[in-house]
Design a protein that fits this description.
heterodimer; A: 119 residues; four-stranded antiparallel beta sheet; 12 strands; B: 115 residues; mainly beta; seven-stranded mixed beta sheet; globular
Chain lengths: 119, 115
């Protein structure tokens, strides 16, 4: 069964400092991994995804994430945080070994990590 | 929020009433999804549809129903059988599920409060 964990409910960072939001996953095969961001009372916005290839994935708004197969992790990072980055961040996973039409093809979301960037 | 619209943004209903949430997309996407979001629980899949006139139950389908008569539209009905309907409901779409590589695009959400 697929699962994804975001071990931190909240991450606090000072503006200008690097930030990391952690995500670990469990799938039976190889994963497709996604990061989304949600601002208050809004829908989710896609940030980036790992499908295959380079382990370092670059996405929107200066975010990047590193796929680490041995540690089954896909942490979201940004070199210099902005106050406007404050939001709720979701990691999601899909097992690459899915069957078309089967429920295992669905995205599994983590519970979210609230990022707070203070001036 | 891309080309997905959800209406209304806020919805209030009395217990025992059915209510239908609207979701429309102009992205020409084949697949559409309904999620429920509760504080501290992430997103949980209610129903999904890969193609017109076809839909499948997700993880928490009990008390909900959907239809997919048009590619652009995927309305969700919250029935009186849903025991805890108060939540934030998110609709999403993607190009298709065949490859599994596609990201989903989300609407702005509808906050339903049932009293």
């Amino acid at each position: 069964a697929q699962s994804v964990a975001q071990p931190e409910d909240q991450v606090n960072v000072a503006e200008g400092n690097p930030l990391t939001v952690k995500c670990t996953y469990s799938v039976s095969g190889n994963p497709y991994l996604f990061w989304y961001v949600q601002y208050p009372n809004r829908g989710l916005q896609f940030l980036l995804k790992y499908i295959t290839g380079d382990n370092l994935v670059k996405g929107s708004y200066g975010f990047e994430a590193e796929f680490n197969k041995s540690q089954t992790s896909f942490h979201l990072k940004k070199p210099s945080a902005l106050v406007s980055d404050s939001a709720l961040y979701f990691c999601a996973v899909r097992d690459i070994e899915w069957n078309y039409g089967g429920s295992q093809g669905n995205l599994i979301f983590g519970k979210g990590t609230k990022l707070s960037v203070k001036p | 929020d891309g080309g997905i619209t959800q209406s209304p943004k806020y919805l209030f209903r009395k217990e025992g009433q059915n209510v239908t949430l609207s979701c429309e997309q102009n992205l020409n996407h084949d697949a559409m999804y309904w999620y429920r979001q509760d504080p501290g629980q992430g997103l949980r899949l209610i129903y999904y549809s890969q193609i017109v006139n076809d839909f499948q139950k997700g993880d928490i389908a009990e008390g909900y129903s959907v239809s997919r008569e048009k590619k652009e539209s995927f309305p969700l009905t919250v029935t009186s059988a849903q025991k805890n309907p108060t939540a934030f409901y998110l609709c999403a779409s993607s190009i298709g599920r065949q490859t599994g590589r596609d990201e989903q695009y989300f609407g702005p959400g509808t906050r339903l409060t049932v009293t």
